[in-house]
Specification:
By secondary structure, the chain is mainly alpha-helical. It has one domain (about 15-95): Methane Monooxygenase Hydroxylase, Chain G, domain 1 (Up-down Bundle). The protein has helices at about 15-35, 40-75, 80-95. Helix 1 runs antiparallel to helix 2 (about 40-75) and helix 2 (about 40-75) packs antiparallel against helix 3.
């Protein structure tokens, strides 16, 4: 029995995704510093909004890869219904935030 190594579609964009995540990490540290320095409330909220938008963009890029790879392959292999259901549940959860 062979064990196939699964490679997800987002792997092709891994350097870019990791760079985005490092930027998000920097934003989070910056917000922490703003809190430590007792900065103006609205400035902190604006930075949190930017951090959230950056995280949403990473999630969208990974979801796009999932649709282009995993979901497309599942449909091609005649078992896409479960993948589509899983995808829709994930989107519903994301939209409830």
């Amino acid at each position: 029995m062979s064990t196939a190594i699964r490679q997800y579609r987002y792997v092709k964009d891994k350097p870019s995704l990791l760079a985005r995540m490092k930027k998000i990490e920097g934003q989070a540290k910056g917000i922490q510093q703003m809190l430590e320095e007792d900065r103006y409330c609205i400035d902190i909220v604006q930075q949190l909004t930017a951090l959230s938008a950056a995280a949403d963009e990473v999630a969208l890029l990974i979801l796009q890869g999932h649709i282009e790879g995993c979901v497309t392959n599942a449909i091609h292999d005649q078992h896409g219904e479960a993948h589509i259901k899983e995808l829709m549940e994930t989107i519903r959860k994301a939209m409830k935030r």
